[in-house]
Amino acid sequence: xEDKLTPILQSLNCIAFQYHADxxxxxxxxxxxxxQDLVPNIESRPYQTLTGHSFFLDDFIRDxxxxxxxxxxHLNNEKLDSGIWTEHPENKEAMHLSAExxxxxxxxxxxxxxxxxxxxxxxxxxxAAREMLIANENVMASHQYAxxxxxxxxxxxxxxxRIVEAISKAVDTISTGILIVDSEMNCLMDNPAIKQxxxxxxxxxxxxxxxxxxxxxxxxxxxxxxxxxSDETWQGELCWMLPPFNMKWFMLSIxxxxxxxxxxxxxxxxxxxxxxxxxxxxxNEKLTLIDNLTELPNRQYFWNALENLIAASIPCYxxxxxxxxxxxxxxxxxxxxxxxxxxYVSEHVRKSVKREDVVARIGGNEFGLLLQGxxxxxxxxxxxxxxxxxxxxxxxxxxxxxLGNNLNIGIAAxxxxxxxxxxxxxxxxxxxxxxxxxxxxxxxxxxxKMEQEALRQLKLKQELESALELQQFELxxxxxxxxxxxxxxxxxxxxRWNHPELGLVMPGSFIPLAEASGLIVPMGKWIIEQACQAxxxxxxxxxxxxVSINLSPRQFNDKSIAPFIEEAIKNFNxxxxxxxxxxxxxxxxxxxxxxxxQLKTLRKVGIKLSVDDFGTGYSSLSYLKRLPIDxxxxxxxxxxxLAVDANDKAIVSAVxxxxxxxxxxxxxxxxxxxxxxxxxxxxxxxxxxGYLLCRPLPFEKLCDVLAQQ
Amino acid sequence: xxxxxxxxxxxxAVGKTSLIRQFVEGIxxxxxxxxxxxxxxxxxxxxxxxxxxxLIWDIEGTDQFCGFNPRYLNGASAxxxxxxQTQPSSIDDAIIIYQQAIAASNADVYLxxxxxxxxxxxxxQQLESLTSLKFKRVISTSAKTGENVANxxxxxATSLLAKLS
Lengths: 709, 165
Ligand SMILES: Nc1nc2c(ncn2[C@@H]2O[C@H](COP(=O)(O)OP(=O)(O)OP(=O)(O)O)[C@@H](O)[C@H]2O)c(=O)[nH]1
Ligand SMILES: [Mg+2]
Hints:
The structure holds 2 protein chains of 2 kinds.
Chain A: H1 2-11, E1 14-20, E2 24-29, H2 35-38, E3 47-48, H3 55-69, E4 78-87, E5 95-104, E6 107-114, H4 116-155, H5 160-171, E7 177-182, E8 187-190, H6 192-197, H7 206-220, H8 224-229, E9 234-242, E10 246-258, E11 264-273, H9 275-288, H10 299-311, E12 316-323, H11 326-333, H12 335-352, E13 358-363, E14 366-372, H13 377-388, H14 394-399, E15 407-414, H15 421-437, E16 443-445, H16 448-467, E17 473-482, E18 488-499, E19 503-505, H17 507-517, H18 520-540, E20 546-551, H19 553-556, H20 561-571, E21 579-584, H21 585-588, H22 592-605, E22 608-614, H23 621-625, E23 631-634, H24 636-640, H25 646-661, E24 665-668, H26 674-682, E25 687-688, H27 699-708
Parallel strand pairs in A: 15-16, 18-20, 20-21, 21-22, 22-23, 23-24, 24-25
Antiparallel strand pairs in A: 1-2, 1-6, 2-3, 4-5, 5-6, 7-8, 7-11, 9-10, 10-11, 12-14, 12-15, 13-14, 17-18, 17-25, 18-19
Helix pairs in contact in A: 4-5, 4-9, 11-12, 16-17, 18-20
Chain B: E1 2-9, H1 16-25, E2 38-47, E3 50-59, E4 78-84, H2 88-104, E5 108-114, H3 124-131, E6 137-140, H4 149-164
Parallel strand pairs in B: 1-3, 1-4, 4-5, 5-6
Antiparallel strand pairs in B: 2-3
Helix pairs in contact in B: 2-3
Bound molecules: guanosine-5'-triphosphate and magnesium ion.
């Protein structure tokens, strides 16, 4: 036991003692190199008072003994913490320690920890934070002082001469810059400090400073002219770029001075250098606005950084990176694996960009970048390729258990794609969404078309919500033929949307929207009801067909689906075996246990089950064998190339053979050509579905076709 | 020799560490290095009534980032509340710290109004609200020039010795 504890205690960088009531301690664990420095000859004295070596420790031991002896501490496990202290043994480095007195049923312990790292972190953080407080107070104090002086003089309604004199006296020696201009923006007076602020020599022309300030104002405060015409005191921050690398931040107050008649006569510009303050602020934000896991700045920091770039009119690229399928990593491999992946990606991204570029963690599985000095989209792509390459690395694949995780990257450019933070983040959000949808490219640059498309989708989604109520949906039926006699054996129901403006809308454009919003559930129930009703009518007409209905992932996971189907079957008085539910292969490979249970529940109702799109997922036939399934549908992509692709021929014939061995029936969909059908029949495919034999039809047309049979 | 624990408390950056450094080592530095936790120095003071060994506790400053830990005052014979006359906010903060301190300790309290080599930014009125509290002595110091620094410590030592006799 002790052997096991040793490395743990060592890694905690602590020493431990047990207290005995007589004021003496027993050494419990003293195997740390600094123990000697705190308590000399510690090893030779296994039983000692520990006092007389450190004033702080002596003091704490007194409090600790009181604590151990006090009544209350015996009630439960309690601790007394000394807080950090610094010990400086002679001729040695300073140590930063903390002590804890612990009351435990097994005894009373004193633990002393060495907090070298914690101390440095805390010191850095507090240093930056406190310096910022001070800098803020100092700059504001002198800026305010100058402003108050000017205000008090302006109340005296004195002559310009008097104002200039008074202000000069007050401000000549301070580091706050002053400029007085007339109502026409001609410079009347300046002080030495303002020249220093703008790095100009004492002899330089005072007009040049005014020119710089006015230019900055025009760029950074487009509303500035309005401010001037309001004749009121204005205050703001200006960023001044000094090519090539430097930048300075100023606090600027502009105060109007009126003549005796109340007419504006002069403006006084008061300027303070707040670069240091800004720098400290940024440093402080870095220390506090940081994501603990990746140690990257957080969303707030990212927002601020972008805001600063915009304030300074510095062009940049804004990049969002999203780890695809991240939820699966967390769900299937556990959260600690998820954390590992996040850390790995964050390090990779950090290494892929320049030091000055901002990399932040802006969401659970999202990173944000601000790239400066990138000249073109082309150049930007180089950076993105470097970042995107991670998904190809074998280390990453191994780490994610080959779950097929990829990076989706969206990009917007400032100022091209927006001139404020909200607008730009919206643009980049649209771009990353697009990247998720596009499979072939992992990155996407924002463009206005994308946004129109997104808006169109949004509108469609809203219209979709009322489509059910407005009875705009219609069911179509595509016959599925028995291959040996070409008789219609069953029909697949397919939904169409009669859109008032767009006409007939295909399911591909609205089912994903319905699935995402959850509308698929009521819509799916409507389909089931309509299908049952159609079956009833067909039976009345003397046709006994099966019907196959697609079930989306959300519907499949809906617990109320099985009782609902049962109810519908009863209401329309149909044989449950006439109904076949199609679920996609992709759905089955997640979460085996839950899938199996739901399939069993549905099976109990008496309906049949089949697998749609077979071959597109990653399942194997042997996996499907373990599920209660009756049939599978070979995905249309294999059927399409049957005539030309030898590979597909081999796959399809093998699937048919193996499916039959597993007692599964096989349907081929998307059959459009005679030679495809010939091949399928030749290889004993059970059912054929496709344009070659019949398109999807409205109910009446279906009845006509059945009548002709 | 009489040994006494003496604590310096107050808002951050008012000059607690600097006062101790000036007193113990006779050094002043313009550079600000904020204190974390506690550091103890010892220094002997000789007075007409005899010698005292001070264990001087330099305690981290109290501000929005770091609270005041009254336990540090346990066993102290006296403590000094330090404020900075160029930082008006330090006066208001000190009033709160004072109240927390006297609730925890009966020791003598001294007030050092530090940085007296710089122009005061504090109004008479504001200062009055602090100095009217029950300080054994209010003294204006400069860790930079050393003004009143040794005096303050000697006075505390004398007072402690006088109590004994
Ligand atoms: N001019 C002047 N500056 C001083 C004086 N005392 C301290 N300073 C400066 O004020 C700053 C803060 O001094 P510290 O002694 O570190 O302050 P502190 O109270 O120990 O600060 P924390 O440990 O953060 O609570 C430093 O930059 C010192 O140089 C003084 O009497 N006069
Ligand atoms: Mg200090």
